[in-house]
Target: DNA-directed DNA polymerase
Amino acid sequence: MNIALKYRPSSFKDLVGQDILVRILENAFTLNKIPQSILLSGSSGIGKTTTARIIALCLNCSLGPTFEPCGSCTSCLAIKNSSHPDVVEIDAASHTSVEDVRAILGDICYLPISSKFKVYIIDEVHMLSSNAFNALLKTLEEPPSSVKFILATTEIKKIPITVIARCQRFDLHNIPSAKIMERLNDIAQKENYFIEKEASELIAHHCSNSMRNALFLMNQALLYSKDGTISTQSVTDILGLVDRNVIFDLLEAVLDSDLQKALLVFDNVVKTANPLNIFEDLLQTIQLICRFLITKEIDTEYEKSRVKDLSAKKSLIFFSRLWKVLLKGIQDIKISTCNEVAAEMMLISLCYLSDLPSPEQVIKKILSQNVEQGNRQGRPVAPSPSVIQVTDYSDPKKYVEKPHSVIPVRDTGIHVKNKQQNYDFDKILQLLRRSNQIYLYKQLCSNLKLIDCKFGYLKLKAVSNLNSNFCNDLKSYLNQATNQEWVIIVDTSYMNREVSNLNYAPVVKDILNTFKGAKVVNIENKE
Model:
């Protein structure tokens, strides 16, 4: 007999992973406040139909209504065998029309034949037509006291809100992997089977949090092994998975930029596995390493040793960049007409990516070389008072880690000698700050140099790029605040000349040559 059917829960105490639902229904039966219409929603295989049948058992048990049905009376046995005349289970996928609903509505006026309640279980209720839902509305809101409706669906969004509002809704949660593993081990013990820990972990991980799927996989593994032992290898074969050792070896070759080893491992494993499965497992392994680098925790001891060794090879930033490239590559493989060729080229790209330095590393190397050269020639090396914003406009697949870096440039050399000009300019700054004109205040402090200032006249020189509306905004504010017409002049020629001259500086030229298509777009003074 199929394990999933044999061990289907027949009471709420056997229902796994739905503690909130069980507690609410237990209180409802205790207080005799059982809803007339119940809506159960959730993903496939987590117990919606099973819950509906248990509710029917609780309602029509000879001891009931009770939260703990006996399971042995005539009504309980009939419900378990799907032969009870007062418990009607309907598959809405094959009974979608309004005529099917009218047939139900025509019978609800009659009393139950042999029990206390007529229970209508409508599975996959979202498949009903619009007319069928409309016919059901009034009855759902005020059904006869002897009638209970239990609706189940995997697509709650497809059900009209008018129907949802007339039912007491329960959202069944996905079953945690730990609960699934516990259930599998319990059933294996009852059936005198032996299941390896790693095998139960694999089943729980690949069953989409569905107990039904997990039991089907367990039953399949039993039939595959025949000797009453469910091994990790048998589950791996059934699921078509790649051995974890192979995935770790493949990732190690990629991180070492060992293209020959990577292709050799890939060629061996692709004979029995789908290329997409290989790369998806590789994706999960990279995520595992990233999580380990942050939390320093991992479940299994074997994986911990391999993950710890691989995590020492590269930084967290690199692994996240590798994950992004691999994710994009998987999407490309899916749309490719030749999966294996696309997968092999993707693997080559990953190996070369692992050897590609980041912009930060390149700039640090150039700066260190410049410092060493200056020390050898006896020239002092200036500090870094300015920031050059370097933007990479080349292929986005290069995944540049940082859009800008700090390199040394010469001082602007612009100084104000007139103390009266400084005094007047400070008054403007104080006025902007008191008036909460933060944007104008920061621009004057950071991106402009004072040339001349007197009441009604302000001349400035730009040391970095400005917003095109800056002059008009500043002029409008000062005109209004002082009741005086202001003349504001901003000289941007210095900025343009600095950017132009900086392109020929040796250090900047090396950076621009390294990142093809990049250009200097701004200089910000750090003083």
Summary: The two ends are 80 Å apart (CA to CA). The longest strand covers residues 147-153. DSSP finds 23 helices and twelve strands in the chain. Confidence is low (pLDDT under 50) at residues 379-417.
